[in-house]
Amino acid sequence: MCENPIDIIEHVITIDPGHRGIDTMWQYGSLQKAADSILKQDRKIPSYVLTGFCCMFGRCETDGPLGSAILSSTLRDLRFNTFLLTDSFAEPVVKAAASEVFAENALFNENKEKLVVSVDDPTKIVNISFIISIERPGRSRKTNDYRTMSARDITQCTAPLDLLFPQIGESQKSYLTIGVGDGGNEVGTGNIADEVCKHVNHGDEICTSICADILIMTGVSNWGALALAAALVIVANDKTAAEKFINQCINQPNILKKMIDAGSFDGCTGKPELSIDNMKYEDDHLIVTNKIIAAVKMAFQMS
């Protein structure tokens, strides 16, 4: 049994509840590597957490913004100049998540800059320290458009923000890039495109060409976001940030409610309910959340 808290967290999130065929694609050690790499970056230069997957009705699903808002908050607690990044299609849901997480400072930083940045043109994002993508569509390697897990075309409601990341065959960006995905069509999973083609249903059509310096594969992308936030507070040894992270995790049902009120829905069922990827929050997601919290408490010897 592993005793390193980050190894425990990585073990918790590397399960395949949707039976997508990703259980051969875990990137063991990537959680530690991502946290170590982020904490070496300049904290004054803007950094971004990119999210928003509009897979039905032109609206954003529940997987992505929930964990992204908490991760963004944790990064700011660690004194990074971090912003949530999305496009105009997912903006209402991402803002709703952020409004619950950042309620204290009303979605503005100390310089009165908006903490949620919504753009449809990736060239408007410049001077980047690092960027993390959580459940964001990456263009198909085969057709160069955006696809759901069932290979449905969603290009009409997806801005090309994946171009902030390198494509297969391109050199790395001048800034750190990290991708979190759970299926093979998300930004960053171009790192394992051949495996996605081989093991995932519709893999040849959905696998993306968009890569990342570090890829975190997980059963649900929100879990990956929470896991990365947890790893960051542990590596930074910041107990205050850890306590805030735990409180944000406990508050997830309220964040989800805000998102649903803004038009979000479960990306698998299409229903506006407190569930993610066809799993009720109070069941699977609460279990995973509690295990992540327990690992953080163990790291800081909290009761």
From TrEMBL:
- Determine the domain of life of the protein's source: Eukaryota
UniProt-listed Gene3D superfamilies = TON_0340
Q: Domain D-glutamate cyclase-like C-terminal, which positions?
A: 9-290
Quote the InterPro entries the UniProt record gives: GLUCM_C
- This protein's UniProt keywords: Membrane, Transmembrane, Transmembrane helix
Q: Which residues cross the membrane?
A: 214-236
| UniProt-recorded name of the protein | D-glutamate cyclase-like C-terminal domain-containing protein
